[in-house]
Amino acid sequence: MVATVSGLDSITVGGLAAATGVSKSGILTVFGSRESIQVAAVGEARKIFAAAVMAPAWGEDPGGARLHAILDAWLAYQRGEVFRGGCFLTATSVEYGHRDGPVADSVRALKREWLTLLAADLATAGHPEPEDAAFRIDALLAGANTMYQLFGGDAELERGVRHARAVVEECPAR
């Protein structure tokens, strides 16, 4: 998805028309506006992220086992370059963090969903501060993504996941 390389703002009616072979008016008939296209892009990225990171972990028991499986899947998601420019959540959170409107709201909702999911499994695993721990895991993974984008190499990704695993290990009921 171009949004991780050039940002959600780079998604245009003309660009989508050229990529799909559908006329601009045809694109606007389906979506109505560029903003609607961008919101739809966030929705599609959510589906891709869920399939790549959440679905592989969903069969694990809630709590520590699921969190470790999520971290394994996140690492595979990054290594597989599911999004050419790295983690969609990280890229769009920075791009839209200071904005208002439907696109920013959809980015925030996606980030909240991710943090809520992490916090729920951390709570199940008995972490005394699940929201803070979810924040730390998210920050570590976002940092790993950024370092990977800047410098390449698995070492950056592995470092972030290793530190995120340490947060999970703080849970008494892992």
From TrEMBL:
The keyword Transcription regulation belongs to this UniProt entry's keyword annotation: yes
Domain Tetracyclin repressor-like C-terminal residue range list: 64-163
Protein name: Tetracyclin repressor-like C-terminal domain-containing protein
Xref: Pfam families: TetR_C_13
Signal peptide range in chain numbering: none
Coiled coil, from the record: none
Keyword annotations from UniProtKB, A to Z: Transcription, Transcription regulation
Gene3D superfamilies, alphabetized: Homeodomain-like, Tetracycline Repressor, domain 2
TM region positions: none
